Amino acid sequence: MDAAALADFLRRRRAELSPGDVGLSEGRRRRTPGLRREEVAQLAAMSTDYYTRLEQRRGPQPSEQMLASLARALRLSRDERDYLYRVAGHGIPDRSSLGTHVAPALLRVLDRLDDSPALVISNLGESLAQNRMADALFGDRTALAGWERSDVYRWFVHPTTERLLYPENDRDRQSRALVANLRAALGAMGQRSRAGELVRELRERSAEFGELWDRHEVARRFEDHKVLVHPEVGAIEFDCQVLFTEDQSQALLVLTAARSNGQHDSQAQERLRLLSVLGTQAFSDDPA
């Protein structure tokens, strides 16, 4: 580990970001440009003392998990992320696989979205980043580990709980869409990739998945309109907008109140406002 290079790199990247770049309020007048140390620590979910020691060359070697959090907090490109791993004494993450690194361009857009549920997902359906409204609608899926982070995995392995978010008459369509999206990801990534691992895992665990997989349906799109059912708020009609990275390995999904004849649906808007008030209370109160 090159502690001096790591410290200098962190300081310089921190100085180049403004609070608005990461979705924070500018607050009172700042004496120096860039983010404060405590702000980076907050974004990376670590203590300010730990982060400060890294910048002062006094910290221990950060784990790969810590580095992934720092790369996201500092909005690093893949090249910058790779450099961060090198100077911290770790191997470079495999770019052919889908890790937890979120495309900075998508994060910049996500940071500016507050009134509508929005989340960044990998092309295996893994939740990589969510805003406050997405947490309220889905629960914090970024906190899940392993394949549990993938919506296609949860859909077929935990159908009795995962499918409650969708109306019963839309579940067959969603099953086919998830499988078709996964086949498109496999075509892009290859049999030896994480997509191939996920397919093999699902074929072993779900007969339903195996039957749908054998249809060879391929698609890489999301429904323009959907209904999602929140346990407290009820059914909410959404319009869905999607922004892909250039290589289509990640997508930003934004759900807005459904529109009809150019106007927002009043019921959808009202339920979206109620969702904002409730926040994650329904999920945090659940003993499970």
Automatic annotation (TrEMBL):
SUPFAM superfamilies: lambda repressor-like DNA-binding domains. InterPro entries: Cro/C1-type_HTH, Lambda_DNA-bd_dom_sf, MLTR_LBD. It holds the Pfam family MLTR_LBD. Residues 24-81 form the HTH cro/C1-type domain. GO terms for molecular function: DNA binding. PANTHER family: BLL4672 PROTEIN (PTHR35010:SF2), BLL4672 PROTEIN-RELATED (PTHR35010). This is Helix-turn-helix domain-containing protein.
